[in-house]
Amino acid sequence: MPWLKEVVMIEYINTDSSVSSSHNYGILERSRRIIRGRNKRHPMAKTLTEIFSGTEILNHKGDLNKEVNHLVIDSRRVVPGSVYFALPGLRSDGRFFIDEAVDRGAVAIVSNEERQFVPPKVTFIHVEHPRKVLAEVSRRFYDEPDSNLDLIGITGTNGKTTVSYLVKHFLADGEDPVGMLGTIQYDLGSRSVPAFRTTPESLDIYGMFAQMSLAGCRRAVMEVSSHGIDQFRVYEMAFDVAVFLNLTRDHLDYHHSMGEYFAAKARLFTGETGAIPKVSVINIDDEYGRRLLGMLPAESRLIKFGLLPDADIRAEDVELGFSETTFRVIWPEGEGMIKTNLIGRYNVSNILAALSVCFGMGMDLNEVLLRVESFMGVPGRMERVEGLPGVNVLVDYAHTDDALVNALEMLRAITPGRLLVVFGCGGDRDRTKRPAMTAAVQAKADFAWATADNPRKESQLQIFEDMREGVSQPECIEFVENRRRSISLALDEAREGDSILIAGKGHESFQEFGDTVIPFDDRQVARELMAVKNIKSGV
Description:
Helix content: 25-40%
CATH class of the largest domain: Alpha Beta
Number of strands: 26
CATH topology of the largest domain: UDP-N-acetylmuramoyl-L-alanine:D-glutamate ligase
Largest sheet: 11 strands, mixed
Radius of gyration: 24 Å
Distance between the termini: 57 Å
Structural class: alpha/beta
Number of domains: 3
C-alpha cells in the first residue's frame, strides 16, 4: 500500500465537528488529487461483499459485487467508486445529501432509512446503526490495522492529552516511531498533521492506523472521547491498554447527565464497544474510577493507580514546587524517586497513569523512570510564557470547573503574590458549566477577566449572562468581550510575585466566531503584549 504514504488525511464529514477544519482543507484536496491520479484499479479496491461480510444488513438493493475504492461520510468528498455512509448528525443529516453523493459517482449508499427509489447504477444498503457499520466496514477495508499495533486508549475529562504525550515519550525507544491521535495532533509515524477532533471518525482512525503501520509504528496512543465511544468511532477497536483518568462535569449538553456521561466512558472497559481491553488502568483516587472497578470483565487485567494505599502504582512523599515536582513512586516490584518540571498534584496523577500503562505492557519501570525528567511538557498544558520579569504567566487548556479548581489550587500553593485569571466559556456547548466555572474562578483567584473563548454561533452576551450566575464577588471580576484586551489588562495589572493563568484554549491557534475561524494563539498574543510593555517600560 505505498500510495498511502502520499495521503495525509482520510476523507471526513464536518457536520458534527467542533471546528470547521478549514486548515485541513488543503491537505484533503491534495489527497483527493493523489487518489484521482491513480490507475483505474485502486490499490486498496475491495468488493462490497468483502467489506460487508459479517455485518448485519437489514436489506439491500443492487449488486454487492461492485468494486469499492473509498469510504466517505461527506457527500462533497465523494469520487467515483466511493461508498457513501449517510450518517445522522447533530447539526446536519447525511441522508439529506444522498442524491449529491449519487451524482458524484458513489457506487453504494449506506443508510438507516430505506429508500423506495434507487438508481440502477447504485447499490443501496439498509442498516440499523450506520455508525456502527461504518466502524466494522472501515476496519475490514484497511485490513484491521489496529491488530498490527499495541494500542493504548486514554479516556477521562481531564488529562488525556498530557498522559498521551507522557506515554508516547516513555514508549519511544529510538527505533520504531510511536503513533498518536489526540486533541493537538495526529502523529502518523512519518509525519504529523494538526488534529481536527480529539477522537476522529472510525474511517479516519483506521486509515491513520494503516499509515502508522506503513511508517513502522508498532505502538499507538490515542485519546478516546465520550463522543467517540457513544458514536461507535472506536467500535471493535482492539485496545491492549485502556486508561480511565477521572470524570468531572463536561459535555452535559450531549450526555444530559453525569450518569449518562459515565456510562459512555465505561463502555470502553466493559466490552460494549465490541472488544475488551487486555489491561484496564484505573485511577482509584477518582470516585467514578472506584465505581468502574466493579464493572470490569474478568478477562481484563486490572492495574490501579493513585495516592491511596491500595493502588498498584502509587505516589508518596509528594512535594510541589514553583518550577518542579518530586515524589516517590511505588510499584509491586520496586520503587524510585521522580523529579519533573510538570507542576501540580494532578500531574502526579498523570505521571502515575503513564507509568501504569508501561507497567501493564511489561516494561521495566526502573528504566522508564530515567525518561521522566527529560519530558518537557505538552503544548498549551500549563505552558509557561516568558517575557514579564517576576511574573509567572501560564497558558492552560482548563475549560471545566474542576480543571480550573485544580489549576488554581496548584498555582495558589506556589504563588507568593496574587493569582490573576483570564478565562471564558465556549459557545454552543454545555451551558450548565458556565456559572460553575465562574464560581470556581471567583473562589480561587484574586481577580479575573471573563472574556470570549470560542463563541461559535452563540451570542457572547448570552454566554456572559450564563457566566454571571456564578458571580459571588462582582468587585473581583470584569467582563471584557475582546480576549486580546483581557490578556493585556491582566498583564497591566500584574506585579512581581503574581501568577497569571490564561485558561480555556491552551494549544489552540484560532478563535471561532459564527462560521469564521480567525488566528488567535494565547501564547503568541501574550508574548507580543509583553514585548510591547517591556519596550514601554524600558526593560
